[in-house]
Amino acid sequence: MFEIGDHVVYPYHGAGTITDKVERTILGKEETYVVLTFPMNQMTIMLPEEKLQASGIRSVITLDKVQELIEHSLTLKPAQEFSRRDINDKHDKMKSGCIFDCTTIYTELMLKKKHSPDKLHIEERKQLDFARQLLKSELDFVEGLSSDEIEEFLSMQNREDTSELPSS
């Protein structure tokens, strides 16, 4: 499974590092807990090792997947008019921990913001900021990806001319 030092993504918390494994006795039952540290929100949590799979934790993506994210984002169009249902759907997608869902939300809202900057509802602005944080937290742990390349990826969602996009 996961080892100390592995970089993982915990849905809705972003990417972090497994910093320790500890034994704890709770209600008379001894269990091994994995200690996760998340730099994005400066939080440390402990999860039972036996429940890691069910929690949705996954490994951080690889450099190859970044290229797939770029290609995926090129197919997207601006988000539609605001609706409470869309906000709830986007919220559920971000909770899933899927980086493609997060990229979709981020890109669609960035495109909507670019085409009509005053049209983003406050909830959409919050989701745009949170999706950016989640993406950045994971991309920060991708081996072979510099901070400049991460910023370029995040800012390219705002470009009209896709010929300027980075190629990994």
TrEMBL record:
<dbReference type="Pfam" id="PF21095">
    <property type="entry name" value="CarD_C"/>
</dbReference>
<dbReference type="InterPro" id="IPR048792">
    <property type="entry name" value="CarD_C"/>
</dbReference>
<dbReference type="InterPro" id="IPR003711">
    <property type="entry name" value="CarD-like/TRCF_RID"/>
</dbReference>
<dbReference type="InterPro" id="IPR042215">
    <property type="entry name" value="CarD-like_C"/>
</dbReference>
<dbReference type="InterPro" id="IPR036101">
    <property type="entry name" value="CarD-like/TRCF_RID_sf"/>
</dbReference>
<feature type="domain" description="CarD-like/TRCF RNAP-interacting">
    <location>
        <begin position="1"/>
        <end position="110"/>
    </location>
</feature>
<protein>
    <recommendedName>
        <fullName>CarD-like/TRCF RNAP-interacting domain-containing protein</fullName>
    </recommendedName>
</protein>
<dbReference type="Pfam" id="PF02559">
    <property type="entry name" value="CarD_TRCF_RID"/>
</dbReference>
<dbReference type="InterPro" id="IPR052531">
    <property type="entry name" value="CarD-like_regulator"/>
</dbReference>
<dbReference type="GO" id="GO:0009303">
    <property type="term" value="P:rRNA transcription"/>
</dbReference>
